[in-house]
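Sat 14:20. Reprocessing the chain from the morning session after the first attempt stalled halfway. Input below, unchanged.
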Amino acid sequence: MSTLFDRHDLAGLTLRNRIVMAPMTRSRAVTTVPDAHTATYYAQRAGAGLIVTEGAQVSEQARGYLFTPGLHTRAQVTGWKQVTTAVHAAGGAVFAQLWHVGRLSHVSLQPCERAPVAPVAKAAAGVQAFGYREDGTPGQMPVSTPRALATGEIPGITADFVAAARNAVEAGFDGVEIHGANGYLFEQFINGGLNTRIDAYGGSIANRLRFVLETVDAVVAAIGRHRVGIRLSPFNRVFDMPAFEGEAETWMALAHELSTRGLAYVHLGNREAILAGGGEDFLRAFRQTCGGTLILAGNYTRDSAEADLDAGLADLVAFGRPFIANPDLVERLRNGWPLAHADGATFYGGSTAGYTDYPAYREEAQPA
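Finished this time. Tokens:
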């Protein structure tokens, strides 16, 4: 019997099924403030056991894409309150993903057009940013070369995450997910092939994990461990992230450290890359070492999701793109109804088209 639709206790928060809506950037917040359309979008998808929102930048410096929402101003907090109120009214649960992109940005998105920040001053080769062209129009362009953060600046970024977490609680979120995946700032520090610093934040595994763990601890101290999750992507190669010596050892060390902190969950966002890089044995070892609730994401179907739950590889499974065109994805999966296909041209930016206008499934009347 399937466990996909069973309830799950997430650190005291009861989820009505084991399906998570994965965080997905949609670039609809033209002023960086969520609006009524954002609230409609998430409320339509509140059938998920848990929604994790698109990444919300924790500061102006943290931004890497146009039209993404933040969680660092009063207007943004007010905007997100519309979202959480709507999701809760629909019976859902929702965590805010907190985000700093690090080097994956462009000067046109940074305060006073300064260089983005990173552990080292090395640009991400072949990576595009969504920023402003020289004529002021939005467009794709190569990311800018970052500057290396001074040691004394790093605690200030941790403080930005703490402030954003407090803002999330004020806005009515059930918790926050620290974005430590997909080649963004925390992973840039963790990756031993990129991070060649010689201070307390580079070199050894313990040093490369220091920034993310200091931030986890500070956010936990501010809002409580039951309200804090983290997303990671071991063996990630997206956004010019290199393989490095001791890669598996690094991620297992992080799993051990997280096991002592008792977070609401750990979310692994790249199932296929993990299996390719470390194999199922690594995934099982990570899960056993980490303890607690594990969310796994990676191009799931109902059958593959049920198989991973039954095999004990995860407690919850996250679906991403299927939620875009199927606001009622949980019911479609439960009933075996066909899935609609999303229009890739409307994934990012634009109007409500391809955002809030996908209908729920309606069974056609069958002839007698």
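Residues 364-368 have pLDDT under 50 and may be disordered.
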